[in-house]
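Ops channel
N.P.: pipeline sanity check, posting one input/output pair.
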């Protein structure tokens, strides 16, 4: 079992920055791909970013982003702290959503919106 707890959401003006954290429990954090998703009011949950697990030379730490956040958001992980981060900059009102952390053994699952584990979400509101 993996438990995920997000933090760091809040209210920010357009053009500003915000950093989200997702603390995980479990001793196998380093073997999970981690991802961030978001869901705006009245919309379906969508993929934001993912980072592969650290095992294997070829795919170590590879990152993936939705086109809408490329160049503005950065996902990273600290296996020593069992934590994944999402650094968001140049925020836009359309980034307003509940942001969810997710964990799956396969990054391919995350990229298609599937995950074994989900956090409870944290609200991000960007004012214009």
């Amino acid at each position: 079992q993996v438990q995920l707890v997000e933090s760091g959401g809040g209210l920010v003006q357009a053009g500003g920055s915000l950093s989200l954290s997702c603390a995980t429990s479990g001793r196998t954090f380093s073997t999970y791909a981690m991802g961030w998703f978001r869901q705006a009011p009245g919309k379906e949950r969508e993929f934001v970013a993912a980072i592969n697990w650290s095992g294997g030379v070829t795919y170590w730490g590879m990152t993936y982003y939705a086109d809408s956040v490329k160049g503005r958001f950065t996902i990273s992980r600290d296996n020593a702290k069992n934590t994944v981060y999402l650094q968001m900059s140049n925020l836009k009102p359309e980034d307003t959503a509940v942001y969810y952390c997710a964990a799956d053994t396969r990054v391919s699952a995350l990229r298609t919106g599937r995950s074994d584990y989900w956090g409870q979400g944290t609200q991000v509101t960007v004012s214009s």
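N.P.: looks fine end to end. DSSP finds one helix and eleven strands in the chain.
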